[in-house]
UniProtKB/TrEMBL annotation:
Entry protein name: Nitroreductase family deazaflavin-dependent oxidoreductase
GO cellular component, one term: plasma membrane
Stated family: Belongs to the F420H(2)-dependent quinone reductase family.
Origin species: Spongiactinospora rosea
Reaction(s) the record says it catalyses: oxidized coenzyme F420-(gamma-L-Glu)(n) + a quinol + H(+) = reduced coenzyme F420-(gamma-L-Glu)(n) + a quinone
Amino acid sequence: MLFGKEHVERYQATDGAEGHDWNGTTVLLLATTGRKSGKRYITPLIYQRHGDDYLIVASNGGSDIPPDWYLNLQSASEVEVQVLADRFSARARTADREEKPEMWRTMAATWPDYDEYQKKTDREIPIVVLERAS
């Protein structure tokens, strides 16, 4: 099973042939800019489509602390995304209260652990919408 740095490397080397399909769901690569370091970080994340957009969840396994990639988005919402061989620029935004319930159902259907993660923390776990740049 792939994860972390090895997952990113195999995904990039094979245009997602290895790493896109993972544990019964699908994974994209998200490149963010470090809010403190200015370095580029690439994270493999479970995703689902929502119209033309892509949804990801800032769960951090149900930790009370958001994942670093989500904190980086607060400083720089312009990101790079790779889905299979498709690499593109996108703008990341947090889903608002009105749209989140439907999006959460979509993401929990693909990865049921998200519901368990939410139960483990008082932090409201955000859904992030990745909108392809035109």
